[in-house]
Fold this protein.
Amino acid sequence: MMKIIVVGAVAGGATVASQIRRLSDAEITIYEKDRDMSFANCGLPYYIGGEVSPRNRLIAATPETFEQDKDVTVKTYHEVIAINAEQKEITVKDIKNNKTFIDTFDYLILSPGAKQITLPTLNANHVFTLRNLEDTDRIANFIETEGVKDVLVIGAGYISLEIVENLKFRGLNVTMLHRSAHILKSVDQDMTSQIPTILEDNDVRLLLNDEVKSLEGKTVLLKSGRKFDFDMIISALGIQPNTEFIQSSGVHLTDNGHIKVNNYFETNYPYIYALGDAIETKYRHVELPAQIALAWGAHRAASIIAQNIVTPQSVQFKGLIGTNIIRVFNYTFASVGITPNLLEHFDYEIVSQTQKQHAGYMANAHPLSITIYFDKKTRKILRASGYGQSGVDKRIDIIATAIIGNMSIDDLKEIEVAYSPVYSSPKDIINMLGYKAEQK
């Protein structure tokens, strides 16, 4: 019987094991170094804020249910610490019993995920990161038992903003610290420049262009010389691939530590696959590499890997476009396509439009702004950003579909957007972007 080992569970590993079981009676074992094997990672901040309740709504499966329902063995608190790719062996550390052992495989699937970047200056029992359900439980318990009132959130990306919003929903005094003035770098800066005002309108104190110099007890000293006291600190500085254990395996990594995969999610060994936050794949619409830590890519990869293990190299991955979205209190920010720093590879033009998300004479009509970058020669859409109080998700999804359909910027004129005064306009913002681009 074919023997498959999956390293890491949660979204990528648990999903690929489930997909393989649909297609094969292979022996499948998942090794997960943490306590929990399958939970709604993206929902963790919303549980802290009380929007998701009770806690068990976050749990998708347990080792017991996975074995009972899918005949897949899941060993938690088991960390894979080394890989011998040539011999098809892994070294596993049983964390609870503090012992190691060797296991063998026919196929190995790597889903180690990513870890939060931390500061060495932040080393205290009231400093936390948010990576998994264990972290979430520790944060929630600390808030409840330690009388937390004042919280510092360090960072200004997606996780930081979600934590800030949900801590405010919980009624805490929240400060956000960021070393620059550019918040949420995946979205255009002229749009995210609105975020400080949104945060301050919701009583969030902002400390921009500053960093932590030292921590003494509850007192945080910043490089600017300012001092503040906090009952709790949550550090969300960004993530890096959790691939140290792979470095001596022979599996190829990028300079930044991401696992290199081909169109089948194979590594340089055809019997070792990889997926999730730790891999480098490609963009779908341009010839550039992509490192995109989002759930959609992990779930799509899981399906493709399962099919390719059962029928080798039968399904190719077409690439990612990085569609992403976030709620920041009563506003939504979204983007799709290449990141802003990659625009330097193209001779591009920009088109922008701001108009109400639906008929202006209807109640709750609010401005919606979209900016699209397109290649001057091919007219291909390279990226887009949008923000507003309503309707952002619909428009960014339309643009994502246009990119996948290889439509040009000019084709947006032709999209027949569903119209009623309560939903859009006879000339939707999508159409107007196409008309504007036609003039360039």
